[in-house]
């Protein structure tokens, strides 16, 4: 029972972070129909930027988070303006490849500046654990779930209520119609990349705090694909459900079966979902016309 | 017959249009190419010859990938996995089951084609982005199998192979690279010729129709299921050949040689070279294989002046790879092949711009 509870909390924490990473991915896909293979590297860059501000420059926590957000915003804007905008109207293959190129570049830059060895960063979230129904549950995992839930709720409210959020949904729905209503599609594209970079920053910092600041953070980015396919490529609630399912699944498989197997199970789920229900649990079914 | 005029090349008969070469310049270039290929092993030392040999293997793999991605429009991120299938099956058949190497390679090619077709099944319902993600999953699943399935390597994690011997003739140690050059050159040439001719047949044309507009292709009588699955089979066959040759040439097989990075490198080859062109795949394979060599050479030259550079070499190499992919896609999405065509046109129409 205690193993089960532990795995449950670990799985929910992983799932919450996955949902945050997947949120950025879905935002970009919804608004700009670009598949961003560099989402994992956004996590990586976010975590290292925070590390630089927090540990290297010695800024207080809040200032370090602000620096991280500013840098993430900048990266989002630059990537959209100089890499993705020239690619508008190209084949999907070209757009996929350009984000793969971007991911190689970002990862290599991080490696050049910070090396490959893991960096030590003082714990942000408390490392103590709490007794809960007879199981010892680490407090920081619980806090990760809480923070991710708050951030995801904030994003959801942003889409439902704020002007920019509604404009983003309008662009995702129909670009031309949105333009006729006076929405600047370019600005929305930039906004989507910025929000994706910021949500990846939060995910990266949380992930780095419960694991370590090192190059492996980028590998987490590939796990985004099973999540978004399961939840539906263009569905924000889908990322939360998909993230939690994949997070729990990997933790339970790794706890009860074999940690190695846990790395491949999400992809098996991905293939099955693609064969049975390609648009995922909450994705919008598209009918194709010639 | 065809006419070469200042405004372009015009064909007067169907036969002339179907020919692979129609101008005198093309025959001259073919002649130069043949001379170059014949002379190479006698002028290059073993180091450069080994680079040429890896390029030749890459050419086979890139041509195979271009059949699927460039000509049929089915995005595949599973190249590394399919090469692994070819390499492992050929190595196991030849080493452990004691089959003659050519037989093992042929069987490996067939097996890779079969497995490629299996992983192509999602392609029947999916396209574009979804297919890319599905093939990413196939890459991860194959990678998992070759890493964790101990039976494949008898729990050693790697397979070592003997020096190549074909029906009793073992490659002499002193002319190892030269002999491999002739074998690989012949096979690469066959692969290029086969691929080039494939797209003069009805089957090849049906692949292109599927790429351009699959619904319309279906309307004019192309069987989508057959076309897509054959494309996966043919392409994986080429890729399996490249994998099997890698195994026998390097004489070791480990999973590290077939990761997702390999898939990405091959995709980069066909994008840098030019999607949907056999010549482009060849240019891209040459370019992307020479790039790391070039970076290493530059690092060696300026190495003493900047010692930090040699530590950073892997990172710099990845950064350059990423940058090359991005720049090519933004500046010349149709790759080196298009640049070469533009150069030829510039000369042909000179002094006019177009």
TrEMBL record, chain A:
<dbReference type="GO" id="GO:0022857">
    <property type="term" value="F:transmembrane transporter activity"/>
</dbReference>
<keyword id="KW-0812">Transmembrane</keyword>
<feature type="transmembrane region" description="Helical">
    <location>
        <begin position="220"/>
        <end position="249"/>
    </location>
</feature>
<feature type="transmembrane region" description="Helical">
    <location>
        <begin position="49"/>
        <end position="79"/>
    </location>
</feature>
<keyword id="KW-0813">Transport</keyword>
<dbReference type="GO" id="GO:0005886">
    <property type="term" value="C:plasma membrane"/>
</dbReference>
<keyword id="KW-1003">Cell membrane</keyword>
<feature type="transmembrane region" description="Helical">
    <location>
        <begin position="261"/>
        <end position="280"/>
    </location>
</feature>
<keyword id="KW-0029">Amino-acid transport</keyword>
<dbReference type="Pfam" id="PF02653">
    <property type="entry name" value="BPD_transp_2"/>
</dbReference>
<comment type="similarity">
    <text>Belongs to the binding-protein-dependent transport system permease family. LivHM subfamily.</text>
</comment>
<protein>
    <submittedName>
        <fullName>Branched-chain amino acid ABC transporter permease</fullName>
    </submittedName>
</protein>
<feature type="transmembrane region" description="Helical">
    <location>
        <begin position="142"/>
        <end position="159"/>
    </location>
</feature>
<dbReference type="InterPro" id="IPR052157">
    <property type="entry name" value="BCAA_transport_permease"/>
</dbReference>
<keyword id="KW-0472">Membrane</keyword>
<keyword id="KW-1133">Transmembrane helix</keyword>
<dbReference type="InterPro" id="IPR001851">
    <property type="entry name" value="ABC_transp_permease"/>
</dbReference>
<dbReference type="GO" id="GO:0006865">
    <property type="term" value="P:amino acid transport"/>
</dbReference>
<feature type="transmembrane region" description="Helical">
    <location>
        <begin position="91"/>
        <end position="114"/>
    </location>
</feature>
<feature type="transmembrane region" description="Helical">
    <location>
        <begin position="188"/>
        <end position="208"/>
    </location>
</feature>
<feature type="transmembrane region" description="Helical">
    <location>
        <begin position="7"/>
        <end position="29"/>
    </location>
</feature>
Automatic annotation (TrEMBL), chain B:
<feature type="transmembrane region" description="Helical">
    <location>
        <begin position="315"/>
        <end position="333"/>
    </location>
</feature>
<feature type="transmembrane region" description="Helical">
    <location>
        <begin position="50"/>
        <end position="69"/>
    </location>
</feature>
<dbReference type="GO" id="GO:0015658">
    <property type="term" value="F:branched-chain amino acid transmembrane transporter activity"/>
</dbReference>
<keyword id="KW-0472">Membrane</keyword>
<feature type="transmembrane region" description="Helical">
    <location>
        <begin position="266"/>
        <end position="295"/>
    </location>
</feature>
<keyword id="KW-0812">Transmembrane</keyword>
<feature type="transmembrane region" description="Helical">
    <location>
        <begin position="128"/>
        <end position="146"/>
    </location>
</feature>
<dbReference type="InterPro" id="IPR043428">
    <property type="entry name" value="LivM-like"/>
</dbReference>
<dbReference type="Pfam" id="PF02653">
    <property type="entry name" value="BPD_transp_2"/>
</dbReference>
<feature type="transmembrane region" description="Helical">
    <location>
        <begin position="27"/>
        <end position="44"/>
    </location>
</feature>
<keyword id="KW-1003">Cell membrane</keyword>
<feature type="transmembrane region" description="Helical">
    <location>
        <begin position="179"/>
        <end position="199"/>
    </location>
</feature>
<protein>
    <submittedName>
        <fullName>Branched-chain amino acid ABC transporter permease</fullName>
    </submittedName>
</protein>
<dbReference type="GO" id="GO:0005886">
    <property type="term" value="C:plasma membrane"/>
</dbReference>
<keyword id="KW-1133">Transmembrane helix</keyword>
<feature type="transmembrane region" description="Helical">
    <location>
        <begin position="76"/>
        <end position="94"/>
    </location>
</feature>
<dbReference type="InterPro" id="IPR001851">
    <property type="entry name" value="ABC_transp_permease"/>
</dbReference>
<feature type="transmembrane region" description="Helical">
    <location>
        <begin position="100"/>
        <end position="121"/>
    </location>
</feature>
């Amino acid at each position: 029972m205690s193993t089960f509870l532990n795995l449950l909390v670990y799985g929910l924490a992983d799932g919450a972070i996955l949902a945050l990473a997947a949120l950025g991915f879905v935002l970009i896909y919804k608004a700009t129909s670009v598949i961003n293979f560099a989402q994992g590297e956004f996590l990586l860059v976010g975590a290292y930027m925070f590390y630089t501000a927090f540990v290297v420059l010695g800024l207080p926590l809040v200032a370090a988070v602000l620096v991280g957000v500013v840098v993430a915003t900048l990266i989002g804007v630059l990537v959209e303006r100089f890499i993705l905008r020239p690619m508008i109207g190209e084949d999907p293959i070209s757009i996929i490849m350009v984000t793969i190129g971007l991911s190689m570049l970002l990862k290599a830059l991080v490696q050049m500046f910070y090396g490959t060895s893991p960096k030590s960063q003082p714990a942000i979230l408390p490392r103590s654990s709490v007794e809960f129904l007879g199981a010892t549950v680490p407090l920081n995992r619980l806090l990760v779930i809480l923070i991710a839930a708050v951030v995801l709720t904030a994003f959801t409210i942003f889409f439902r209520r704020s002007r920019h959020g509604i404009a983003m949904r309008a662009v995702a729905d129909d670009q031309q119609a949105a333009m006729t209503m006076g929405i600047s599609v370019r600005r929305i594209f930039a906004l989507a990349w910025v929000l994706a970079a910021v949500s990846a920053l939060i995910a990266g910092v949380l992930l780095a705090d419960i694991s370590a600041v090192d190059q492996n953070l980028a590998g987490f980015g590939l796990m985004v694909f099973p999540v978004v396919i399961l939840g539906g490529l263009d569905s924000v609630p889908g990322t939360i459900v998909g993230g939690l399912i994949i997070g729990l699944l990997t933790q339970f498989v790794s706890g009860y079966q074999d940690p190695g197997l846990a790395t491949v199970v999400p992809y098996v789920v991905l293939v099955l979902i693609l064969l049975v229900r390609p648009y995922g649990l909450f994705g919008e079914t598209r009918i194709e016309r010639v | 017959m065809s006419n070469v005029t200042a405004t372009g090349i015009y064909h007067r008969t169907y036969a002339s249009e179907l020919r692979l070469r129609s101008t005198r310049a093309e025959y001259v270039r073919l002649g130069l190419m043949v001379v170059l290929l014949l002379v190479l092993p006698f002028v290059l030392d073993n180091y450069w010859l080994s680079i040429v040999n890896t390029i030749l293997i890459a050419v086979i793999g890139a041509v195979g990938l271009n059949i699927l991605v460039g000509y049929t429009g089915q995005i595949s991120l599973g190249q590394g996995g399919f090469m692994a299938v070819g390499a492992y099956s050929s190595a196991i058949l030849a080493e452990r089951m004691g089959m003659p190497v050519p037989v093992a390679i042929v069987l490996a090619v067939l097996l890779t084609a079969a497995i490629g077709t299996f992983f192509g099944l999602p392609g029947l319902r999916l396209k574009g982005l979804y297919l890319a993600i599905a093939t990413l999953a196939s890459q991860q699943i194959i990678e998992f199998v070759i890493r964790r399935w101990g039976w494949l390597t008898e729990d050693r994690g790697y397979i070592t192979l003997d020096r190549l011997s074909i029906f009793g003739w073992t490659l002499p140690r002193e002319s190892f690279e030269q002999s491999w050059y002739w074998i690989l050159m012949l096979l690469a040439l066959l692969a290029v010729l086969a691929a080039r001719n494939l797209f003069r047949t009805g089957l090849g044309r049906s692949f292109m129709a599927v790429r351009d507009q699959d619904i319309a292709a279906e309307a004019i009588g192309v069987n989508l299921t057959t076309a897509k699955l054959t494309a996966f089979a043919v392409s994986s066959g080429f890729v399996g050949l490249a994998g099997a040759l890698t195994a026998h040439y390097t004489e070791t097989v480990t999973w590290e040689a077939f990761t997702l990075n390999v898939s990405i490198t091959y995709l980069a080859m066909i994008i840098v070279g030019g999607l949907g062109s056999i010549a482009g795949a060849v240019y891209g394979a040459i370019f992307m294989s020479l790039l790391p060599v070039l970076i290493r050479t530059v690092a060696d030259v300026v190495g003493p002046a900047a010692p930090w550079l040699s530590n950073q070499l892997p990172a710099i190499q990845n950064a350059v790879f990423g940058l090359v992919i991005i720049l090519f896609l933004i500046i010349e999405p149709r790759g080196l092949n298009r640049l070469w065509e533009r150069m030829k046109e510039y000369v042909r129409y000179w002094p006019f711009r177009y």
